[in-house]
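BACKBONE GEOMETRY TOKENS:
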Amino acid sequence: MAAKKFIEMQQKEVVNHTVQFVSYNLMDAVDKIRYISMMAHGIPEKRRKKIAFETKTSIEFLDSNGRTTSRLVSIACRPPRGKPGDVVLDECAIYGSAKSRIIYTAALPSITRGGSIIIGSTPLGTSGIFHEIYTNKKDYPDYRRYTIPWWHSTALCKEIDKAREAGVRNMDTDERVRRWGKKILKQEFAALDMESFRQEFECTFLDGSESYISLDLIYANTPGKREGDRSIALDHDGMGEDENEHLEIKVFKTADELLADAYRPEKHGHLLYMGYDVARRRDAAVIFIIGVLPNGKKVSVAHIEMINRTFEYQRDQVRKIMRSGLPVVRCCIDQGGLGEDTTETLQREFSTTRIEGVMFNTESKAELAMGIREGLEKREFLLQDDGRFHRQIHSIKRIPTSGYAFRYDSERDEMGHADSFWAWALANYAIPRSSATERKGFYRQYREKRTGTVSTPKSAVAEPVERERPKGKSLRRALREMGLK
């Protein structure tokens, strides 16, 4: 949008005109003017207006009448007031739901004397003014709406015309990436979970009110509930009425059960990984153990719930398991709040190599939840057929927040606060990831967006019909005359 507005401003008919860009942070605001300045200085002055004044956040051009100037102003995530003209709200959804409404409301008076407003953003949830305008054509009829998914980009899609003719838009995401994505896109697809990829590259609005993990996805990783499991069981010799016993995963409910000579490496995995969600009174404390089988499958081994048990009792259960001779490689513990002392105590006893503390916050819980979702999508897990546990997994919601982030959590109910889910996610986090499967894409993009060190991805754009826009040369003709096209 910065380039488009710069080109428009070079037309002779445009005089005494202001364009305000609102960015999601200061660095991005500065980068817009720096980009425009580089464009301007790269064009011979006889083909553009003369630069009259320039700072880090604004640039002014002397109009063709020689008396007035037109300017481009870039501000960081605050209401654009007092300057009539055009307004561009960049990455509007990332401002946050409340702040985006305040900024949008302040922007409207600026365009009443012949300006226009452009709102562009990567989708972020189904709340906020950007989603409302983009999806509600009845209440916002003056806007023109565009989406720019990856298959419209020559940098990401090979043979765009052929992809369009083949119906790329109507394909499943994995199919169109496989068939039409360039190497860099396939790398991003492998690094991101499906929903993050669809949001970042396919302009998809994700509903935070819905469960992050569907029951179908859970059942696809639960022997006995997977499609075709029962027919396989009925064909097995000698199963009779107990055929599901040969399919369903049985987990140990206490540490004593696990240690009673019941562990079998070929059945439970040669290496074990533990997660421990610490609690005392309000929620259940949970120890969850995953075993990794030779084929890479992650099988549930133990699911130990401790309700209203003392911290010392809980620590003793961990000690029993860690000292039993079982091949427990690592235990990850919720270190925040109540888990601080427990983590430090167990680290002194078993070293920081075997006991790892994880501070629960927005980013760490996002990584835990996304690791689970990614594993389920790849059918990595073998879960126990436990309806209560499945409901906890299904209760996790993906809730958009300000600052280009999501919060992953569930509402507290009679079953607690998804304690078993988080213990399971911690156990999964304890399993080392190979460089080929390590998730880097989401958090790299997350940090880059927070710091403004990367250009924004292809995004959805909502643009209204401009009011009383000065008639002049077409954008294509203006580009050609300035030697840019």
